[in-house]
Write a structure and sequence with these properties.
The protein has three helices and eleven strands; from the N terminus they run E-E-E-E-E-E-E-E-E-E-H-H-E-H. The strands form two sheets. It has a six-stranded antiparallel beta sheet, with helices on one face.
Length: 184
């Protein structure tokens, strides 16, 4: 089995360490140990083709699922079906921990590493979007099957990101760089 080092996304306040990668699970599952710092959160998004399962082990998570507020505490599991818009936050004073599973894995491992890598490289806005429009197009369009933000609307994202992605390819801007790989 492949080992993974934990990595941190300073924008979302998340620390992730993979415990089962797509290679070990035939592409069917990505499982990770996850923690969210107090005040951390993930903006509303959707996984068009993946179910996401949160198993809370400590703390209290606040979710919004299809516009409905939900709370999950230690010992509780929350499942977000594919295609359902959702967000997560940790409003509490303590670190929130859990296990997150995404089915199927798709390229989500690389997506989380890319988002955290861009933040660590200082290449994003305060909200985590790449400052370079070509990097924005390259990364967000490349991982559109794994996750999409819900604003701006998907039709507008498609109209803007696809041409930026094509231009990024011309200029050698890649959606993912090997230096972000968390495999040991």
């Amino acid at each position: 089995m492949t080992g993974f080092r934990p990595f941190f996304n300073a924008v979302t306040g998340e620390t992730i360490e993979y415990t089962a990668g797509p290679e070990e699970c035939g592409g069917e599952l990505l499982r990770l140990k996850w923690s969210s710092a107090p005040g951390g959160g993930i903006p509303e998004h959707v996984h068009p083709h993946q179910e996401e399962r949160f198993i809370i082990t400590a703390g209290e998570a606040r979710f919004t699922i299809n516009g409905e507020a939900r709370v999950a505490r230690a010992g509780e599991t929350l499942v977000v079906p594919a295609g359902v818009r959702h967000s997560e936050s940790n409003p509490g004073p303590a670190i929130l921990t859990g296990v997150v599973e995404l089915r199927p894995a798709l390229r989500t491992k690389e997506m989380f590493e890319a988002f955290a890598g861009l933040v660590a490289d200082g290449k994003t806005t305060s909200r985590g979007a790449p400052r370079n429009p070509l990097q924005l197009g390259a990364t967000f369009w490349h991982f559109r099957h794994e996750s999409r933000v819900t604003s701006p609307p998907v039709w507008l994202q498609s109209a803007l990101l696809a041409p930026l992605w094509a231009l990024a390819k011309v200029f050698g801007v890649r959606p993912y760089y090997d230096r972000w790989d968390s495999r040991i």
